[in-house]
Amino acid sequence: MPLPEIPGVVRCSARGLMPSGRQWANVLHAQYAGGASTPGVTEITNLDAVLVRLWLGAAYAGGLAWLVNCNTAVTLIDITYYVLFGGAPPLLIAHAGTGSIATQALPAECAAVVTHRTGTRGRSYRGRTFLPAPTTASLAATGVIAPAVVTATVAQFTGAQTALAAIQWQIGVASYLHSTFAAASSFTMDNRFDVIRHRKG
Questions:
Q1: Does residue 1 form part of some domain?
Q2: Mean pLDDT for the chain?
Q3: Which residues pair with 145 in a beta bridge?
Q4: Distance separating the N- and C-terminal Cα atoms of the chain
Q5: What is the pLDDT of residue 196?
Q6: Residue 2 domain-assigned?
Q7: Which domain does 137 fall in, by range?
Q8: Contact in structure between 62 and 154 (CB atoms under 8 Å)
Q9: What does the pLDDT read at residue 197?
Q10: Residue partners of 153: CB distance under 8 A and separation at least 6
Q11: Are the C-beta atoms of residues 72 and 102 closer than 8 Å to each other?
């Protein structure tokens, strides 16, 4: 399926490796200047400096980057940015980062899920990010994701959205069905893992 053309929107594809050596990938979408302008290298580089902190780097208020919850064998390799309008070539920005904990990693197919909620109704306007499997240290005694991990992850996404607004960017949901973009008004995360079958191994 070809990528749609949506003004000002960039498809952001982060990837890295899990302890098994299998690759993980997260895809988010961001829009520049409300779609009124097509971002260039400078604008995308500024976006990257904020977005990378969802996985790696400094915490926003009350938050933590996700790889803090992951085994040291979990890596972030790069983020590739595809401009969905204007014909610019993809921009790949390399990142060298690893998880922070030596504790046993959970099975690779276990993914914590952050839901991106918008002000537009319908499944086409609700996005999800399936984060790389964390370690057993992220679990509560009952086997679900610990409340502190949920709170910190949501705070990190919220903090990134606030920081992006200051440079005319916003994370949101790109509807490939309707070729439209809706900014995320909030982020939520429940305490249960989803299973991603293609990450097994």
A1: no
A2: 93
A3: 139
A4: 27
A5: 62
A6: no
A7: 9-199
A8: no
A9: 57
A10: 63, 64, 66, 69, 112, 114, 131, 189
A11: yes
Considering the domain boundaries, does residue 140 fall inside one?
yes
Distance CA 8, CA 181 (A): 9
Percent above pLDDT 70 for the chain = 96
- Is 30 in contact with 10 (CB distance < 8 Å)? yes
User: How many domains would you assign to the chain?
Assistant: 1
Closest CA to 113 of 4, 191, 35, 24: 191
Each residue's pLDDT tens digit, 82-118? 999 877 899 999 999 999 999 999 998 899 999 999 9
Contacts of 163 (CB under 8 A, 6+ apart): 50, 60
Rg (CA), the chain: 16
pLDDT of residue 49: 98
How wide is the angle at C-alpha 152 spanned by C-alphas 148 and 153, nearest 5°?
115
Residue with tokens 């982020």: 187
Q: At what angle do helices 147-165 and 41-51 cross, to 10 degrees?
A: 160
**Domain assignment of residue 4, yes or no:** no
List of residues 6+ apart from 94 with CB closer than 8 A:
77, 78
Reported as a single tens digit per residue, the pLDDT across 134-182 is 999 999 999 999 999 999 999 999 999 999 999 999 999 998 888 999 9
